[in-house]
Write a structure and sequence with these properties.
With 262 residues, this protein is an all-alpha fold. It has one domain. Helix 4 crosses helix 6 and helix 6 crosses helix 8. It starts with a helix and ends with a helix.
Length: 262
């Protein structure tokens, strides 16, 4: 199975910037509402996590007030150094954990959106559920991929930010490759995304940047609120990069859609 994915990437078809861009616009006209729904679901899922993230801040303020009442402040009216460092450490750990959870949820919801794009594009029944990739069968893999993505981004930032432009393509492709090949291991999916990204990096980065800029500009023209409706346009070129380069096998069109219903 591992070789099948890599062989498909090795034998992938050439992709064309103009063709993919035009098809992206046409598909976006059909799925913009679903894109908005997926974005709305992501926001609603993230809100509780952001509230949890602020708990340490309130706890810090409460403990600080308690310390003030009992004389635990230093010479300048701040909490003792040990207390401050301890609470800051707890806060950082909690922020990292919540960031990982948020990334995993976003990863799973975005992967499902690619499934919707395929269903609409190929005229297949829309049978999958929004949280299909967040169920027990794939949840561990989604978290592993989200953590790996987070780690790659942090590493790219530590290397003076420039590597971000390189990893931007493989990380975008990672979600769509997972969406249509969830049976592969996390390591194979990551390797596959970099392999495909390296092969079509120039065209892919151009499509990603143009789609991102256009989605923001059009959204701002629509009184800024339009960004919520145009944000999903960035996913259209990624979907067609995968489709045009690797394609869908005949059995995928009939069997895999049924597999993902449950």
């Amino acid at each position: 199975m591992r070789n099948t994915l890599f062989e498909k990437i090795e034998n992938s078809k050439p992709i064309d910037f103009g063709d993919i861009f035009n098809k992206s616009i046409e598909l976006f006209k059909k799925v913009w509402l679903q894109g908005f729904v997926h974005l709305l679901i992501s926001i609603l899922v993230m809100i509780p996590l952001f509230f949890v993230m602020y708990i340490p801040a309130f706890a810090f303020a409460g403990i600080s007030g308690f310390g003030n009442s009992y004389g635990e402040y230093g010479d300048y009216g701040y909490p003792s150094e040990e207390l401050s460092v301890g609470l800051m450490f707890v806060f950082i750990i909690l922020v990292l954990i919540i960031s990982m959870v948020a990334s995993a949820l976003q990863f799973g919801i975005t992967a499902h959106f690619y499934r919707v794009c395929k269903q609409v594009d190929l005229g297949l029944p829309e049978t999958s559920s929004y949280f299909m990739f967040l169920k027990r069968k794939y949840l561990g893999k989604v978290f592993a991929l989200a953590i790996a993505t987070f780690g790659i981004i942090i590493l790219a930032i530590m290397l003076c930010y420039l590597p971000i432009f390189y990893v931007m393509v493989p990380l975008h492709l990672l979600v769509v490759i997972f969406a249509f090949n969830p049976e592969y291991s996390a390591s194979d999916l990551i390797k596959g995304s970099f392999k495909l990204g390296n092969k079509f990096w120039g065209v892919s980065i151009g499509l990603i940047l143009v789609a991102s800029i256009l989605s923001q500009l059009v959204g701002m023209v629509l009184c800024f609120v339009g960004i919520f409706f145009t944000a999903s346009f960035i996913y259209m070129p990624i979907y067609f990069i995968y489709k045009d380069a690797l394609g869908f096998e005949d059995d995928e069109l009939e069997n895999k859609e049924t597999l993902f219903v449950n």
